[in-house]
Design brief:
Helix content: 25-40%
Number of helices: 2
Number of domains: 1
Shape: globular
Distance between the termini: 17 Å
Number of strands: 6
Oligomer: single chain
Radius of gyration: 14 Å
Strand content: 25-35%
Length: about 120
């Protein structure tokens, strides 16, 4: 995983912006009653039926992306070699796959997020 010091602030922000743009695009044709993406104050929120929310929050100091859903939370570092956000516990969880799997499970909708 990337050492946070290897990502300067502009690179980190660019990677976040691109990731959020790809996530938003993946939900573009999804019925908003099933899953809807919104971006406010730098946090991307995916709202599912029953008002369940997945929150993706930038964490500039450690250069991470934090994700919370239900009673779980994940911290992701950007892996420059693999060009993707991977969990910082080394479990191999990738943020886009986590979102795709959660959306399939909770909203019964298949989305494919460009990487």
């Amino acid at each position: 995983m990337a050492n946070p010091t290897t990502l300067d602030e502009p690179t980190y922000r660019h990677l976040l912006d691109e990731t959020f743009k790809h996530i938003d695009a993946a939900f573009e044709d999804v019925d908003p009653d099933l899953a809807e993406v919104s971006l406010a104050l730098g946090t991307l929120t995916i709202t599912y039926p029953g008002n369940m929310r997945m929150m993706l929050t930038p964490q500039p100091s450690p250069r991470q992306l934090w994700v919370a859903f239900r009673d779980r939370a994940w911290h992701f570092d950007y892996d420059l070699g693999q060009k993707r956000w991977l969990d910082d516990r080394g479990l191999g969880i990738e943020v886009c796959k986590l979102i795709e799997d959660t959306t399939r499970e909770v909203a019964r909708v298949d989305v494919k997020i460009a990487r």
